[in-house]
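# nightly structure sweep
# worker-07 picked up a monomer target from the shared queue
# config: single-sequence mode, recycle default, output format = structure tokens
# input follows
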Amino acid sequence: MSLHQLVDLFTARRILVVGDVILDHYIRGSVTRTSPEAPVPILNVESEEWLPGGAANVARNLVTLGAKVTLLGLVGKDDAAEKLTSQLKTLPGLTPAMIADATRPTILKSRAVAQGQQMVRLDRELTHAASAKVMETALATVRKHLPKVDGVIVSDYGKGFLTPEFLQQLIAAATAAGKPILVDPKGRDYRRYRGATLITPNAKEAAEATGLALVNDEALTQAAKLLQATIAGEAIVITRGAQ
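# output follows
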């Protein structure tokens, strides 16, 4: 089967994406002078842009490929949540299923960019574990949508929404429903993903999770086997960037 044929298959797929949603904010402009108040450049702002990031970007990419996507994430009750939700509503085929929590902000990453070069990034986030009430709502939402989808993608950025307990409940529910569950992992303890169908760490993440120096293909294979044993899933894909 060709890559084009694989991409065409997305048009018939319904996918539940669960993960850390982020609002990406880009402030673009030019620098021509330095501040008299401190030795820092002055950015003359020319444009601003807000884009879905994190798990929201995963969902955006999937609907671009033609899939029908339901996106479950955690946001605050703030302007950033409104901006993110309005962005998502413009994407045909994407259904937001956001949980609003007034005790934490929507994750917002603002980047100042001058002449194509990023100068600084400002992060607004709280990463402590979400409350039990939020997790109950999230699990109920998962169970509501599982019968309607072909599979689940978990996009973990380590921001407190995907707790180990919730992940295990999510994986158990998906398994019981006969739905494959694919995980883009974060952190070093992959036991939290045990039972997932597939995980997709990059080489750096695989090295951190196994403690191995991935200097050659043999070491990479060893790391893959260790991680595969940890999750007891069907497969693992280690992405290698330019390699």
